[in-house]
Amino acid sequence: MGAGAGVTVLGREVVATRPLGSVEVCTLDDGREVVVKRPETPRSGARPSTRVAAEAAGLRWLAEPGVVPVPEVLDADDATLVTTLVPTRSASRAAAEDFGRSLAALHAAGAPAFGAPPPGGPADAWIGEAPMRNDPHDGHWLDWYLADRVQPYLRRAVDQGALSASAASRIEGAALQPGPEEPPARLHGDLWSGNVLWSDRAWLIDPAAHGGHRETDLAMFALFGHPHLDTVLAAYDEAAPLADGWRDRVGLHQLFPLLVHAALFGGGYGEAALRAVT
Fold first, then answer.
1. In the CATH scheme, what architecture does the domain 86-277 have?
2. Recorded GO terms, molecular function (predicted)?
């Protein structure tokens, strides 16, 4: 966007800008710094407007319980999301312990159903650049997860050559053990370590929020690793003990994001998805 005469955000003139990853930090003429995000058209070619609406609704929903801080949504339209800026520093053990306990409380805030979108959020949501349909499901978690998360991306990974048909058949035929039934949790939905910012506490950004299984968020946080992963998991388990065998189910919960990565980026993600459940 850039600064200059006539460029405004929130009705204020933008006097300076700087890139911050995939977003832009704008300094306004009243001294505030805000984050401006303009999602590009996804690779699927779909309109980006639902991406902003889904993210804004997700941030507001995650903010409701007041347990894990998220940036405040200041403005959102079809193509632009404006939020407050999170000051960052290195993660500390104390912040990681707090995050584990707070994440447990966020999950406990619940959702109306598996697959339920945040209030006011569109059914056509997103996880990163990938479309993600949010339709409430009244049945068992595994039935919903396989139908609405795994199968669409399993087919897409095969169609794009990231996964062989035989590997897809092995995934479909895997003996999946979902563990005890749990009520729908309020998920961030894309909780890899890059979507957790650290200051005096952990902050959540870029949600793909929906009702799901709480182990999914934990598995996603573990997928690409974090220096304080064990501290977060221990604090979470102390605050809200996980069902026996949860470590054996990490691969099942990582299957969806691995298939998303396989469909979007190829590489070794297809084989990683196969290894996760076989």
1. Alpha-Beta Complex (3.90)
2. kinase activity
